[in-house]
Every structure is written in structure tokens, then in C-alpha cells.
Amino acid sequence: MERVAIIGASMTQFGQRDAWIRELLAEAGSACLDDAGVAADAVEHLYVSNMASGEFEGQTGIPNALAHDLAAVPAYTARIDQTSASGGAGVYAAWQSVASGASDMTLLVGGERMTHKTTAESTDIIASLTHPAEYKHGVTLPSFAGLTARHYLETYDAPRESLGKVAVKNHSNGVDNPHAQFRKEVDLDTVLESPIVADPLRLYDFCPITDGSAGLLLCPESVAREYTDEYAVVSGIGGATDTHVVHERADPTTMGGVVNSSEEAYRMADIGPDDVDVAELHDMFTILEFLQSEDLGFFEKGEGWRAVEDGVTDRDGDLPINTSGGLKSKGHPLGASGVAQVYEVYKQVLGDAGARQVDAGTGLACNVGGFGNCVTTTILEGAV
To answer: Over the chain (384 residues), what is each successive 10-residue block's mean pLDDT?
Structure first.
């Protein structure tokens, strides 16, 4: 099977945007095509990663609208909804479309518009992904995070400050990301003294509500060489699910979807966790960076917090995590987040990340839906 390459990528400004979902998607799609130097009429498949345009805007049919807005007709279109992992699922779908031979040029655009809704309204839309057995009791993703964080801290004797240091690190990284929603540093005291949301987690342990979009252009490696000498290849990719009913999990600090999807991606890429140079993890809550870093095999169970304390995951550490600022600082427009994670890894392995650049030939992105209900792990390698 011929390797699948990424030859173009884009990311719009994340934050509060005065634009509707169609405009956000068109902005990222057009920028991605321009980045690759590919005409819209060359696109054969067009995928849109989006969780809830209907619920947020009352707008459906957005893939067809995007094909029109980009002048990409008659490209085949489809919408990919995998809740907050829609972006990663879109990467998987786009990869499959090229790897299968069905398309020689596939454009993926992820996006969401959320900020026009109140926090309560947005939280309720997102909470709709939980299982009815838990949702009827008022359970939301923040409450799952608080319960899991408390269990983790007590089980592994981790200090509360270690969670705060994830927020401090990721905000520091976000300062150098021109597309990030929050380009400002925060100190540990600010994090620890912010209002409680779901004990022990406080306001600065959570990502913001965000508008934004991002795009990727995929094709066979032989086609990539017709356009550029600098591209990345998807050397490994895997997707998995875990039980929808979170309280049925044997260990709430283990996300089976992360374990299984990463094992699949590592096998495909023929590498192990020690071969990864940089990673983008789904830090919707600070506790998730600990859980994912362990379930991906970067650190032993219960040792993720020590890695943060020791500076291992800093930008100048042995394994930089969330050089983009993560969801925590960069923002989390649901359908765009997984695409933007791969955008950052793409920039890193091509040596094009500017002030955020680290020494990276191999990068990994892990996009999580719900509270680990569905996960896609993607590994990129530079082919400069």
C-alpha cells in the first residue's frame, strides 16, 4: 500500500469569531488549498469534521455547502461526527479515502462555532454525548473530570499542584502560537486560586469554549511529489472506542480507547512510544494530559504527573507535549480540535513551527471524544 502524505495544512484564528460555521470552514479550506498550491477542482473527496452545527446554529448540510463555497464541485462530500473527537475521526476517514485508492486528493476541514451560546447552553449540548444512564443524573464531562482527578491524586499520591503545572506549561506554549485563543502566561497561584468548577479542578484546569477551523490536504505519496519536496506522511493511525457508560470501567484513570488506538498506530508505523519526539494530547481538562500520556505508553501508570513536575513535557524537555498550547490555551472548537492537533504535528515534523519548533522527526496526535468514549491516534513523520 502506498503511503499517504499531507501536503497542505491550515488553521484559522481560534477564539470568539464574528463568523458562522460556513465562513469558518471556507476560510480554513481555502487556506489549506493555497498552502498546498492545489486547485479546488482537483479535490476528489471533501470531508467536514463537525460535532454539532445543527445544535449550535441550526445549520446542516455543511459539507455540500463547503464544496460549493470552495468551487470543489463535484467532489464527494461527507460530514464526520465523533463528538469532540470528530477531527481525529476525520483524519482517519481522509486517510482511508486515499489509502484505499478511492481518492487521489482529499481535503479535510474541521470546524465549530460555539461562543454565541452561553456556557450553560454549550455544556448541555456537549453533555448530550454522555450515556442516558449517567446524563439523567446530571453528569457532565467536567464532573467526570473532577471525579477522575480526585481518584488519580489520591491513588498515585500526586500533589494538586501538578495539575496546575499542566495549565501553566500549556499557556506558556500558547504564547508563541499566533492562532491560539489565549496567548498569555498564567502562574501557578492564579490557576490554584481560580474558581472551583468540579472539585478538585478549577477554572484554569478547563479549556475554553471556542470558534475556529483547520484543514489538511491528503494524497498518495507519489502525487505529493508532483507538488512539493516537503511533506509529511501518515506513518501510523488507529481508532478505538471504550464503554459509553463511564462508571462501568474497571479503572477510570485508564482510557482503553487511547491504549488500543495507539497500539494500532504504533504497529502500523513500526515504532514504539520511545520513538515519538513531540505529541499533541487532548487536554480538555488538565487531568487528561496525565491519563493520555500514560495510556500512550510515554510514562508508567501513575507517573505522568512526575513527568510534568520534572519538566519532561516542557518544550525544551525530553518529550514536549502540547507545543501548540493544547486545547487549554489554543482553544477547543469541537470539530476542529483533532485537525488542529495534526496541523501542529505537521508543522513540527516539517520544521516549520516557528518559535514553537522542537527537534522532531516523528510526532503523535491523540484526539479524544467524550471522556475517552472514542479516540483516534495519528503518527506523522517528516519526508523533507
So the answer is: 96 97 98 98 98 94 97 98 96 98 98 94 86 80 92 97 98 98 97 96 96 98 97 98 88 95 98 98 98 98 98 98 98 98 98 98 96 95 87
Position 384 scores a pLDDT of 64
**What's the sign of the alpha-carbon dihedral 43, 45, 50, 55?**
positive
Q: What is the largest CA-CA distance in the chain?
A: 57
Q: What is the pLDDT of residue 138?
A: 78
> How far is it, in rounded angstroms, from Cα 375 to Cα 384?
29
CA–CA gap between residue 235 and residue 166 (Å, rounded): 28
**Secondary structure letter of residue 384 according to DSSP:** -
The dihedral through the CA atoms of 111, 114, 120, 121 has a sign that is negative
CA 92/CA 379 separation, integer angstroms: 11
Backbone φ/ψ region at 37: left (φ over 0), alpha (ψ -120 to 50), beta = left
- Gyration radius of the chain over CA positions: 19
CB 72 within 8 A of CB 41: yes
162 vs 28, 60, 91, 300, CA distance in Å? Answer: 35, 42, 32, 16
- Reduced to 3 states (helix: H, G, I; strand: E, B; else coil), residue 48 is strand
Tell the CATH topology of 4-117+209-227.
Answer: Peroxisomal Thiolase; Chain A, domain 1 (3.40.47)
Q: Quote the CA–CA distance of 343 and 32 in Å, as a whole number.
A: 10
In angstroms, the CA 304 to CA 313 distance is 9
Give the Cα separation of 348 and 366 in Å (integer).
15
Task: Give the per-residue SS3 of 199-227.
Answer: CCEEHHHECCCCEEEEEEEEEEHHHHHHH
